[in-house]
Write a structure and sequence with these properties.
Length: 138
């Protein structure tokens, strides 16, 4: 149980809200789509943006209190190989982007996923993916 508490603490201090489609370069849309869909499904309160995070930081029901639950929803999802697709997405964004990789890197870190190298042929891996997740409740 101590390990679980440590994991929850680690996740709660390092997790991003979600990977937004607007943050994904066009070249990475296909490989990142399952991660975008999963993280948006697992986002408990999508109306809270990073822009008002400071406003919510003193709120006991704020985004930070939801993060361990959201992380569990993402990291433990079994509807597809989340670790592999997240790693490919992160690599693609890094290779193709003038956009930030912070959100996907935080997901990789929070879930302890290993990195990999993206190649365009990897998009074939997502052709048969159906993302299945239930939006968690706080």
């Amino acid at each position: 149980s101590i390990l679980l508490l440590q994991s929850i603490f680690f996740v709660s201090t390092s997790f991003a809200e979600e990977l937004r489609a607007a943050d994904v370069p066009n070249a990475c849309t296909t490989i990142c789509q399952p991660i975008v869909q999963l993280t948006n499904t697992c986002d408990i309160d999508p109306d809270k943006s990073e822009d008002n995070a400071a406003e919510n930081s003193n709120d006991n029901d704020g985004a930070e209190s939801d993060e361990p639950i959201e992380a569990q929803c993402i990291c433990s999802n079994k509807s597809f190989n989340v670790a592999s697709i997240a790693a490919l997405c992160a690599s693609c964004i890094q290779l193709n982007g003038n956009r930030t990789t912070d959100d996907v890197n935080k997901i990789m870190s929070a879930c302890s996923f290993s990195s990999t190298s993206y190649a365009p042929s990897a998009t074939a891996l997502v052709a048969q993916i159906t993302v299945s997740a239930t939006k968690p409740t706080a």
